[in-house]
Design brief:
Length: 450
């Protein structure tokens, strides 16, 4: 059976080969849990999902810019108000810088409120000579290296749902209230510029933003009472990996009759699960959310053409975002060919750069890391290649946190391999810390303006 030949429903993925699912110890318990989740309220609503799709349609045309970011794997233990607030804060700060530099609205999408499931290269891993099931994200099993903790437990999906709900709630509160006000966010940026070792590099852009905000006041705009300047629209996303969970969260919209995956506004298919005839593509083709697909160097051109026409059969702008992740050394070889192939299909897409997943390496200390300059290099190539091909560099996708972690090397404080040990916390891939994330925003701003 091929993934676009038959009638779709939210369970039709079950007739297709599925990869990267946990070995749930008891299938019946898993099915009961899917049923339990199906009866719980949606986390997001169809109207909001449509609003994001409209914003992404603008990004596809070059009239908006997508900023997607958050943890590689959210941690149940760190679902706290300060952690959510600090990550949101950095994303808002980056938004002001990128928005000013590009002269475009920035579409803000968190890897938040549901980024709890991870694909793994192997079902098991060796820890101190003992073979254990691999950690697959907090929605599946625990990270402790014990057989008990590593045992997949479907009730973790229910816990993940509730924590996603709590995260969503606090995100809604922070973005509706004065927390997201433009002048407040810009004041944080000024503090960052003052405190950053590379601050003088960013001072110029920061001062230009000051002037723009002052100008609004001078001409009599009452910035305190303009909702667009006081509130932020913020959306959620995650890799929709666990198809039982996503099926349970998929609901029919009462006003349009369409099916939406209400676990997040945007969901994406990972590099390891994008088989055209596989279960993930089958599931995704029928939901009406804006969707992403990660694409790394192992793609096959014909396969990608089938994939984009299957996932965006109606050629709807904003429906499909291609998130490329080649690595600084490979992007020049792989991106141009991909761009040309997709152009030939006539399917509109948002081109988004994930400069994280192709740039991972293991430092001498044994810690998995990424270097700031490699990340910046991949972004720079991404822009240059799209400009040369006549396509639109529509967004960026980061693994980042609002905390002061030391997981990626380089940046203004020039974190060294040795320095990684100071505050290395991630359960999965290394994230940019708050300063490194902002530095990238300022550097991208310079790049766009020149
Ligand atoms: C991720 O985004 O965390 C991830 C696993 O990415 P990819 O599918 O691109 O490897
Ligand atoms: Co990752």
């Amino acid at each position: 059976m091929s993934a676009n030949s038959s009638v779709w429903n939210k369970t039709s993925w079950r007739d297709f080969p599925v990869v990267q699912q946990p070995n749930w110890p008891d299938r019946d318990v898993h099915e009961q849990t899917v049923q339990e989740l199906s009866d719980l309220p949606p986390l997001v609503f169809a109207g909001e999902i449509r609003a994001l799709k409209q914003q992404l349609a603008l990004a596809a045309e070059g009239k908006a810019f997508l900023l997607q970011g958050g943890d590689c794997a959210e941690d149940f233990g760190r679902c706290t108000a300060p952690a959510v607030r600090e990550l949101l804060k950095v994303i808002l700060q980056m938004t002001v810088v990128l928005g000013y530099a590009g002269g475009k609205q920035v579409v803000k999408v968190g890897r938040m409120a549901g980024q709890y499931a991870k694909p793994r290269s192997s079902d098991t891993e060796m820890v101190d000579g003992v073979e254990l099931p691999s950690y697959r994200g907090d929605m599946v099993n625990g990270i402790e290296a014990t057989p008990e903790d590593r045992r997949p437990d479907p009730q973790r999906m229910v816990k993940g749902y509730h924590l996603a709900c709590a995260t969503m709630n606090i995100l809604r509160a922070f973005t509706r209230g004065g927390y997201a006000a433009l002048d407040r966010v810009h004041a944080w940026n000024n503090e960052f510029v003052k405190g950053s070792p590379q601050g003088q590099m960013y001072d110029k852009v920061a001062r230009q933003i000051d002037q723009a905000i002052n100008f609004m006041r001078v001409v009599g705009l009452d910035t305190d009472n303009i909702p667009q300047l006081q509130q932020a629209s913020f959306f959620t996303s995650h890799e929709a990996l666990l198809l039982g969970y996503e099926e349970a969260m998929t609901r029919q919209d009462s006003t349009t009759g369409g099916w939406y995956d209400c676990s997040a506004h945007m969901v994406w298919i990972g590099e390891r699960t994008r088989q055209v005839d596989g279960a993930h593509v089958e599931f995704f083709r029928g939901i009406l959310n804006p969707i992403g697909v990660k694409i790394g160097p192992d793609y096959d051109v014909e396969n990608i053409k089938k994939l984009v026409t299957t996932l965006n059969a109606d050629k709807e702008p904003g429906r499909l975002t291609l998130i490329t992740r080649f690595g600084a050394k490979k992007i020049e070889k792989y991106l141009p060919e991909l761009v040309r192939a997709v152009k030939e299909t006539g399917v509109p897409v948002v081109w988004c750069c994930d400069p994280m997943h192709g740039n991972t390496y293991t430092a001498e200390t044994g810690l998995k890391t990424r270097n700031f300059d490699d990340i910046l290099h991949e972004i720079r190539s991404f822009f240059e290649i799209h400009w040369a091909e006549g396509t639109i560099p529509g967004g960026v996708h980061f693994e980042m946190t609002g905390d002061n972690v030391t997981e990626c090397t380089g940046g203004g404080r020039n974190i060294s391999d040795e320095g990684l040990r100071r505050n290395y916390q991630t359960n999965c891939d290394p994230r940019l810390n708050a300063e490194q994330s902002l530095e990238l925003a300022f550097q991208i701003a310079e790049m766009i303006r020149n």
